[in-house]
Amino acid sequence: MKSRECQEACKSLQELQNELMRKSMHVGSLAFAVEGQVKEKTKWFSLLRDLTRKLKIMKMEQIELSKIATDYKKCLSDFSDMSSIIQSTISREVDLHHDLRVKFIEASKDRKILYNKVLELKGNIRVFCRSRPLNADEIASAASMAIDFESAKNGELLVKSSGVSKKVFKFDAVFSPEADQAEVFQDTAPLVSSVLDGYNVCIFAYGQTGTGKTYTMVGTEEARGVNYMTLDELFRLMKNMEHQYQYEVSVSVLEVYNEQIRDLLVSGTQPGISTKRLEIRQVGDGVHHVPGLVEARVKNMSEVWEVLQAGSNARAVGATNANEYSSRSHCMHCVMVKSKNLLNGECTRSKLWLVDLAGSERIAKTEVQGERLKEAQNINRSLSALGDVISALATKSPHVPFRNSKLTHLLQDSLGGDSKALMFVQISPTDDDLSETLCSLNFACRVRGVELGPAKKQVDTTEFLKYKQMELKSKDAQVNKMDDVISNLDFRWKETNMKNKLLLEKVKELEMQLHIERKIAQQNTDSKQAGLQQQIRQQQEHATAAARPPLASRPLGLYKNISDQQGETLCKEQANGPGSFAQNNCYKSSDPLAPNTGLVKHIDMIEKENNPDLGELKILPQRTGRASSICMTARRATILSNPRRNSLMPLPNIPTSTQVTTPFLPMHPTRTNDLSNGGYQAECFPQPISEDSPRGLRSGGKKLNSILRRSLQKKIQIKPVIRQQMRKGGVNVGEKIRLSIQGRGRMARRVLLGNNGGRRPDSATLHKHIQEKEKGWNIGTGGRNLL
Ligand SMILES: Nc1ncnc2c1ncn2[C@@H]1O[C@H](COP(=O)(O)OP(=O)(O)OP(=O)(O)O)[C@@H](O)[C@H]1O
């Protein structure tokens, strides 16, 4: 009986030893598998690193895009603000411009009116008296002076007669022989503005021959006369007002000789021999015109000068004695000015006459006959007609005899009530010419006494209408242009808005993509870590079981009792119970592992970086070696009632990480019993660990850490024992590990020899099995059962 018991105990011991050896080998294979997993995990980590890097780049891109989008939005809003501001400013400026324009037009009108009133107050016909200086002969002959210039004040002129009687004449201005051309013109210049304002103006020089009429009107090259200076002033003013007015100036030069009009700008004409008879025609209300008269268009003073010179030359050609001839004809310059007001389209046409009259003394002094008499008569007639006209104007006669002479007829426009006239009465200062001087002064006084009516502007209505039509057309064109600009701006704004929307959508899309990638990375990491955790746990359980004290060292009685009372239950629990092998094993290690560095820290950092919610999680206790790769979030898996594996033959590879981790996934405690009816697959997916629940993660992490520590400690302790035993039994550990690696991911189970569905084998079967195993070890694995 005892020997039988002993034999059974020996057998049992042998079985246990075999089992222990297998388990040890399995643990070794698992260790190898863990090593592989670590490598794989390293690979995963590198992938994760890459992903993190990409994620960072994408984040940066996203930030940049967001920044661009924000800037763009800001630009857009700024642009719309600016466009609205610009539009409002433009409309405000347009209104302001319109107001200013209206005001300016009104102010211009007011200025003209006021200016005209000033001139009217001064007199529409003004008379300036100018005396020539003594010439060389007079100085030589010590001619006595008939004019007292020293006592002349405020336009008064004192005439001495034989040094006794005195006569005072009053003029608008008196210029002594010392007055130069500029001084004389200074008082003439205001009339030029009147020409540009549209008033007709006539400036003429009257006086005895040799008193300086031509000098005052034409002047010399060094001292330009009124003609040149007036035109110069005219162009100067026109230039100043060119932004508001458009001007057109033409000049005609003619002479009236023996009551004939000669165009001095037509070459080859001789005095008195007119190739074409020029007549005066009235072409409009108070407007007189000489058809066929050359009107030289001038744009600047050089052209004016050329024209003036041409006229002077033509006048000089016809006479052997130029001065003598010039005294017998009236030289007339007609400057026609057309102006167009660009603001209101008002057009004016004005005329400026610059006349150098023939000498007035000839009639009285000379007793001529023939041609000279005819000349004298004509001069007399024309000057008499001028006197009559002025007299008629002075007496406000209903009839003014303008047509009595060519001179007055030509000057009709500028001597009427709506014009301004300036007469230079030229006198000789000597006693010898006193009678002529007195005649001239009396004539001038008579002229000065004429009160011309209010001046009227020469408005050209047809031009005005034309301008209005043009302005309307240009306004229509402007409105169309503005419409185009507005529609173009509107289109651009819409386009920009669309671009902005697209950019925003792209940003959202990128954010979504980023989120998804982050989740995928998280899931991959979690599942991989869960799988690894499961494997380690399994390894730990088996290692714990293998490290249990051998039954041989226990008292046999104890084993018997166990065998009788609890042995079966224990085996049953170990084989089929829901708890793991490690759970059923009473061996536990409490030794903490030494803290590790590097990988775990790196994982935690990456996790922390990728998932900010994990920021509160405590970093796992530092671990060493392979255990460091286990995920803290994995739970302890419940051992499932898988079919027992009776062979170490490699199992088929599990292709995906999901499949690998599936058998080790944590189960919900309440559903554990339902696995048999197909609930396994559903329950095998990891229980989602909410990111919002760091406590769960922490508790899972602590649990995992303790498991990890235990597992590694066991492995460390068991390894030498297994190796020793395997060396004793001649087992090739490397071969076993290689075989076992193929079955990684499967739950390792305690294999009882001859166990058919958990039943205890009979002795024959057991013996046979041992023999087979011995063969197998010897042949296939090189291992040997130890008794
Ligand atoms: N204010 C003046 N200063 C200097 N010289 C003058 C002045 N006025 C006239 N003279 C000189 O007197 C001379 C005669 O002048 P001017 O020929 O202009 O007289 P006129 O009245 O035009 O004569 P006519 O009627 O014959 O043409 C010229 O030599 C001119 O230079």
From TrEMBL:
The keyword Nucleotide-binding applies. GO terms for cellular component: microtubule. Residues 529-555 have a biased composition (Low complexity). Residues 124-450 form the Kinesin motor domain. ATP binds at G207, Q208, T209, G210, T211, G212, K213, T214. This is Kinesin-like protein. Belongs to the TRAFAC class myosin-kinesin ATPase superfamily. Kinesin family. KIN-14 subfamily.
